Amino acid sequence: MLAVLCGVLFFGWFLWGKLEGEKPAVSGNIPSYLNTSQEIALHVSDVKTGIRSVRIAIEQNGKETVLKDDHYPLAGEPGGAVVHAADITIKPDIKKLGIDDGKAVFHVEVRDNSWREWFHGNKTVIDREIKIDTKPPAITVLSRVHNLTQGGAGLVIYKLSKPCPVNGVMVGDQFYPGQSGYFSDPNVYLAFIALNYRQGHGTEMYIKASDDAGNSVRAGFFYHIKARVFKSDTINVSDSFLNMKMPEFQVDVPPNSPNPLLDKFLKVNRDVREANYRRIVSATAASDDKMYWSGQFARLPDAAPRAGFADHRTYMYKGKEVDQEDHLGVDLASVQHAPIPAANSGRVVFTEMLGIYGNSVLIDHGFGLFSMYSHMNSFNVKPGQMVSKNDIVGYTDTTGMAAGDHLHYSMLIHQTFVNPIEWWDPKWIKDNITDKIDEVKAAIAAPAATK
Ligand SMILES: [Zn+2]
Global pTM? Predict the structure, then answer.
């Protein structure tokens, strides 16, 4: 009697277990786009009765292409124990499988070993609408001549055959994003580029683009690099300079330092300089897709040039070399607290006390071109404010690492400091920027037959 009761109870327990209603779990990323051979990784699991089968397929125009159809061993079956979790990686060769570009449904069906659904098991089904795109984008270079000087700027104009979330120009290891919005055709992009002061002959440049599906392409263009040698300069760091300047900076030096002020100077000149640059990089990452500027850039009026762009500076203290840095702007000295005009029209990006640069203003002129004003006394503008060429943005002073009253003026193409001299020269602007844009405008407007 007891044995029968035990048997019934056991069977009940067994049945209860076999009839569990918990569905298998599926995780991972099914992309919304599929290119030629994309890897898809899924994790499937079933805690209670384990995984029975996994079926993955692509359905398109009523046709099903099976990518995977796996059956897992049941408990007690030859070939192993119940599988409770599995990692599945597939890399379907879309072209070989005969799947066309266009819309499709990505189908995943996982079943467990439950006796539900008439012994077929609980099932989890995922049907995700995806887009198959195996065609790489095409790049047509529209601008023709690209002459760049070491430390100088340039412009590349190109057209893409379809929208590409990532596109731009590589100059050595530096990426300059392309931006549309200047031409009415949204697939025509402008990329302002730069050779940094260290990039001379042999720097590789190309346009790259990758579409939503991750298909990517590169295109070369004609360019000519003019190498340039920059000046060298020696800066004597005096005790009176350190006494005057260092209290402004809050950096720690070792308590047992024999010359805390010099140590502080070196830390500021290296670490603070680097941190300040990181701030500039983040502030210049995005730029408005409007060409705010026109004509040559204004220079601080009646100012004598002090230090030049990319001067290589050797810092001496009591006759000994203590540091080396490069000066990536132009120093202009006028009268004390001279009014500083905005070099050209644009939108103020920041007005900040920025370490070695002191009080600084950064203006976005659009499409990645920026001007920066440093060692200022006070600000006349606020972040976000639109300014016109020659509007007074503030006054010169000695804030930051400056010994005498002057303006440290710099220009940038996104993250790269460029030589302002080019932007003060109307002929350079015409030859390298505006004529190029006009040429592309004319080519786009012209009927195809005359091109
Ligand atoms: Zn300077």
Answer: 0.85
